[in-house]
What does this fold into?
Amino acid sequence: MSDKVSIALVQGSSCWGCFQSLVDIHLRLADVLPLLDIKFWAGVVDFKHSDLEGYPEKSIDVGIFEGSARTSDDVHHLKVLREKCKTLIAFGSCSCFGGIPGLANFSEIDDALATKFKTRPTYDNETIPSENLPTIEPVILPNNEIVDFDIFLPGCPPTSDLIHTALTALIKGEELELPPHTVCHYCSREKKETPLPDVLKPYQGKADPDRCLLEQGYICLGGSTWGLCEGQCVNKGATCRGCFGPVPPIMQDQGATAISMIGTYAPLEPELLKEKIKDPLGLFWRFSYATSHLGHIRAKREEVKNE
Ligand code: SF4
Ligand code: SF4
Ligand code: SF4
It folds into this structure.
């Protein structure tokens, strides 16, 4: 056992997609698993949270936290994981930046709960469930504002190749060096620095397969997004939605960078942008609103309200 890397995997509020991506390293798991001593992974083995709490401080080599801290339990488990692990990894864009759940910060939590439980045609009960449940945090704070992390592995989800690279480095005791390039760096499409002609939806027109999608009017966030996926969408014909978050230093404002990039290209009238971009929050900050400047103002407002 002592030659193995001990590891604990904890899930906050998440869709389990990141852990699924870990399992998706397929046959390479056969190389990796024998070198890991899994101390805690409640989603896979019948561990209890008290098991994690029972480990001595810093007795586990690596902790991996998936998801955001939406509930009081998530906040508690994140703090316990930090206490027990020498190295802590923010795993996936929910864990790194608040992810898609962080978009709920745009609303007051009572409005978000009412939308979820009182307006859905598939849910008849008018009550908001609370029995035997942890309390819901009023806003999702970025996890790195709750505890310190050593490594950020973004992605919604991180690719299996990236996960395999990270696990291999950890097992070998090597430093994990992640290239800092944007998605554009890996994109095979040609850029000619021409102004944007219009703003198009992905289903409008017929995109030239060899030209930059943004320069053709399709909003692509490749220039403001960390390219750890190696451009897997743009090289297959789809725009980048920004799921790997901002480039290092990764707590930059990804949405603001994307907007400023479009601004440098586009002598487009504000009225046209307003008409064509119906959901700027979901388009530019889909994965990183909680860590953005606007997101911080929102969190501060909540803090002041509770003083
Ligand atoms: S980052 Fe994406 S895949 Fe991972 S838990 Fe969050 S929503 Fe799911
Ligand atoms: S903006 Fe998008 S399409 Fe254009 S070069 Fe960058 S990644 Fe490729
Ligand atoms: S190209 Fe963009 S949206 Fe697609 S996986 Fe990479 S970062 Fe995510």
The chain has a mean pLDDT of 93. The pocket of iron/sulfur cluster (ligand 2) is lined by residues 183-184, 187, 189, 191, 212-214, 220, 222-223, 234, 240 (CB under 6 Å).
